[in-house]
Amino acid sequence: MLSRFKYHILLHLIILLWGFTGILGKLIGLESSYLVWHRVIIAFISLGVAMIFLKRSFRATSKKSLFMMCAVGILVAIHWVTFYKSIQLSTASLGILCLSTTTVHVAWLEPLIMKKPISWIELSLSLVVIYGIYFVSGSFNSNDYIALAYGLTSAFLAAVFTVMNTKMVESEPPSKITFYEMLSGSVFLSIMFLLQGRFNEKLFTFTTEDFLWLLFLGVICTSFAFLAAIEVMKKLGAFTVSLSINLEPVYTIVLAIFILKENELLNTQFYIGSVIIVMVVIINAFIKYLAKKKKNSKHESSTVLLDEL
Prior knowledge:
Order of helices and strands: HHHHHHHHHHHH
Radius of gyration: 20 Å
Strand content: under 5%
Number of domains: 1
Mean pLDDT: 84
């Protein structure tokens, strides 16, 4: 029976690992940009080793494709920096909740970048998410508002690179895209540190515990989780995976309660707003599924009619 559900179990283990990345923002005693620098370097090295072992090609299909992967990698790095900055200024729960608003931006960015028609249902659901954020922020202090700004910026950047990755995956395998994104992210942050005079001993000043958490973050939560997610998607389908990933905020908030005791810092209003946002995200995923199912059904009907003719 366990073997029957092994891919479902693996999927939720992956989501749990992704949810844990927000907790690590609190557990690792490094400033957000330094933390991300270590994450992307460890991730691209471990992913590169995995690609060699799996005999995956590193060659991009074109110079334009390589440029796009590297450009998106810079956005990913900035996204992680703002995400961890939000967590360090406030709580892991707030940071991951802000990230849930990525769907708000995808609703209007996807039609612009992918040349798709605007979904008014998605835009309407986005307004509900905005209300959820407003509800959550009702009892914030000034520091929390700054954290909220960083978190929402992180969500916007996540939406941009999500849409761009969706476009690039049509011509490049996901493992190659992620490798070059991690590589360019590490180069970008290294140049920024050099220009700011921050490429110094502080970058390498951390405890043994921090180092072990950084390895866990870069190898397990990033490289392993990504490659495993690709395999799971092949077995369970994109919809099952994407729908399940929407549970990430729930996992993070639960982990934050047990590990960081954030329930002592957050009030009932925060959790009500969290439920509103998470429910909207899941409803949106179901609507997309029904629309896709309807589209496939029409396509099958057209095929049958053509066969009969």
